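User: I've been trying to design a sequence by hand for this structure and keep getting stuck. Would you show me what you'd pick, starting by listing the structure so we're on the same page?

Assistant: Good idea, let's start from the same input. This is the structure you sent:
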C-alpha cells in the first residue's frame, strides 16, 4: 500500500506535465498560424483590394502650358483605410514602364503626384510629389495608364482618348483629365472630364470636377472573337469583377457545347474574358454564347444584353460582301459612311476585308484594312463604317 501511495502522485504529476506540454504545443501552433497569416495577409489584401489606389488625374499633353508645369504627371489617390508602401510598384503606358525604387508610404486617404524626376521640384508646389526615373511618356490623343504592384497585380488601369475632354480647346493641350467620382473607378468616358481649375488641373488635391456619379448600368456582352475551335475571347463594354467572370458556371454555349472548361479575365483592363471550351466548334455552324450572373466592378449584374453569336470564320469569296448604302455628301456637321451587307451563308473575318479608292486616272490607291480590331461578320448582318459613329 505505501508503494502504491507513493506511485500515484508521480503518475498524476506526469499526466499534468503532458497536459501542460500539449497546451504549450497548441499555443505555439496558434502563434505560428497567426505569424503566417500576418505575413501573407498584406499580399492578400493587395490582391483582393484592387482599386484601393486609383489613377485619379493625369496630364498627357502639357503644351501649351495653362498654369501647370510643362511636364506630364499622373495623380494617385489611396482611397482605402490602410497605408501602402509603393516600393517596386510600376506605372506603365502599355508599352514601357517605370518602377518606384524607393520606400514611399502612401497614407490612407492621401494623394501623390507621379512625374519625371526632372519635374519633381516644379510639381512639389502643388502637393506630395515623387519623381520617377524613366517616367513613361503619355500619348496625347489616346493611350493606356496601368498601375501595378511588384507582384504584377493590376491595381488600376485606364484607356483614355481625347473624347474624354468634351472640349476641343482643352483637348489641344495644357489641361488635365480628372476622375469625377472616385467610388466609380471602372467607368471610362462617363466618369472623366477636363479640369475646371484656372491652373488647368488640380494635382495633389481634390479634383475640380469631383461629384457623385455612380455606375448603375449593367455590363454588356458586345461580341465574341473566335481564336480557334476551342478558344474564344468575349468582349464586354466595361471592366468586370474577376471573381464572377472566372466562374465557368456563368457561361453557356449552344449546340451542345455547354459550359466552358476554363475562363480567365484578361488584365489589365478586365473587360475581356478568355474562354477555353470543353468541346470544339464545328465549321459552318453559328453558336450563341450566353452569360449570366457576371458583375462589373461596381457590382452591377449583367442584364438582357448577355448574348452574342460566335463560330469559325470561313474564307470570303467575291460577291459575299456588298456595298449596301453610301453617304458621300453629308451635311456640314456630318460625316461620310459606308454600309456593308453579308449576303453569304458564311461567317467572314473582317481582317480579310480591305477597301481602296481610285485616283483621278482610275488607278487604285493603297488599300486599307476596314476593321482594325478582330471581328466576325455574320450572314445577314450589316456593318457600317464611318469616322464618327456617334453622329451616325
Amino acid at each position: 500500500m505505501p508503494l502504491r501511495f507513493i506511485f500515484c502522485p508521480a503518475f498524476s504529476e506526469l499526466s499534468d506535465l503532458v497536459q501542460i506540454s500539449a497546451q504549450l504545443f497548441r499555443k505555439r501552433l496558434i502563434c505560428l498560424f497567426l505569424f503566417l497569416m500576418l505575413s501573407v495577409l498584406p499580399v492578400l489584401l493587395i490582391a483582393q483590394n484592387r482599386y484601393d489606389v486609383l489613377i485619379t488625374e493625369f496630364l498627357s499633353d502639357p503644351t501649351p502650358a495653362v498654369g501647370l508645369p510643362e511636364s506630364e504627371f499622373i495623380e494617385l489617390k489611396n482611397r482605402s483605410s490602410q497605408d501602402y508602401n509603393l516600393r517596386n510598384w510600376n506605372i506603365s503606358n502599355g508599352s514601357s514602364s517605370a518602377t518606384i525604387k524607393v520606400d514611399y508610404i502612401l497614407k490612407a486617404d492621401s494623394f501623390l503626384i507621379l512625374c519625371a524626376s526632372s519635374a519633381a521640384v516644379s510639381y512639389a508646389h502643388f502637393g506630395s510629389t515623387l519623381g520617377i526615373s524613366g517616367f513613361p511618356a503619355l500619348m496625347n490623343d489616346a493611350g493606356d495608364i496601368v498601375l501595378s504592384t511588384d507582384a504584377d497585380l493590376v491595381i488600376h488601369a485606364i484607356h483614355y482618348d481625347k473624347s474624354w475632354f468634351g472640349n476641343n480647346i482643352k483637348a489641344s493641350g495644357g489641361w488635365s483629365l480628372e476622375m469625377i467620382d472616385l467610388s466609380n473607378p471602372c467607368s471610362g468616358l462617363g466618369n472623366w472630364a477636363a479640369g475646371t481649375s484656372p491652373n488647368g488641373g488640380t494635382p495633389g488635391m481634390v479634383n475640380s470636377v469631383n461629384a457623385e456619379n455612380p455606375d448603375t448600368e449593367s455590363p454588356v456582352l458586345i461580341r465574341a472573337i473566335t481564336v480557334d475551335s476551342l478558344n474564344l475571347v468575349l468582349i464586354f463594354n466595361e471592366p468586370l469583377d474577376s471573381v464572377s467572370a472566372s466562374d465557368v458556371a456563368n457561361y453557356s454555349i449552344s449546340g451542345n457545347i455547354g459550359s466552358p472548361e476554363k475562363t480567365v479575365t484578361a488584365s489589365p483592363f478586365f473587360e475581356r474574358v478568355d474562354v477555353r471550351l470543353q468541346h470544339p466548334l464545328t465549321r459552318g455552324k453559328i453558336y450563341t454564347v450566353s452569360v449570366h450572373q457576371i458583375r462589373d466592378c461596381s457590382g452591377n449584374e449583367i442584364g438582357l444584353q448577355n448574348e452574342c453569336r460566335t463560330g469559325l470564320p470561313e474564307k470570303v469569296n467575291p460577291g459575299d460582301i456588298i456595298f449596301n448604302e453610301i453617304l458621300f455628301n453629308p451635311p456640314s456637321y456630318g460625316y461620310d459612311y459606308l454600309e456593308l451587307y453579308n449576303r453569304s451563308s458564311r461567317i467572314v473575318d473582317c481582317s480579310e476585308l480591305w477597301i481602296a479608292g481610285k485616283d483621278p486616272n482610275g488607278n487604285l490607291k493603297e488599300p486599307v484594312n476596314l476593321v482594325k480590331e478582330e471581328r466576325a461578320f455574320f450572314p445577314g448582318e450589316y456593318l457600317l463604317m464611318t469616322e464618327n459613329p456617334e453622329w451616325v
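That's my pick for every position. To get oriented when you compare it with your attempt: Residues 1-14, 31-48 have pLDDT under 50 and may be disordered. The radius of gyration is 29 Å.
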